[in-house]
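Before drawing any conclusions, I looked closely at one protein, both as residues and as discrete backbone shape codes, quoted below without any editing:
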Amino acid sequence: MILILVGMPGSGKDIFVQEANRVGFNHIRMGDMVRLFAGEAGIGNDDRAIGGFATGQREEHGPDIWAKRTLERLSDGNILIDGSRSLAEIQRFKSVLDDDLKVIGIDAPTEMRFQRLVARGREDDPSALEDFQARDQRELSWGLGEALENADITISNNGTLEEFRDKCQSMIKSKLGEHRKPL
């Protein structure tokens, strides 16, 4: 089974990844692919540099370039691809991968997402509201809004961490159960 995870920054994708890892999903983060290629190109690791590099690569190589590069590094088994940003990327995955692919959207209120990113403090996370808003706009310009709207399943992350973990576990177990059923 293959799950494609989409969501705005700070929506809770990392928590979903943790829950999928608990049941044995192999995980690949598309943002790590961007950072890897950016590092090889000598690009800085701050949000604007990484985002600018990702945009430039999309303009130069097509909107699905990060999906193509991610596909080159997939392993066997149940796979979770985290961080797709557009329908073009999702279509690339669907054109190459089998029918067990499901797109999972994570939705969370804007203020909660900003607070989570500030608390997380990863090097490329925004610390100012203006930077957060600019990041959201950049990711929406790549098509993330449409990817979220077209997700097969959407999980709302607007409560406690424990409630969200329970929602993630329930959805993952449900999809694994469907996947194992004989036709």
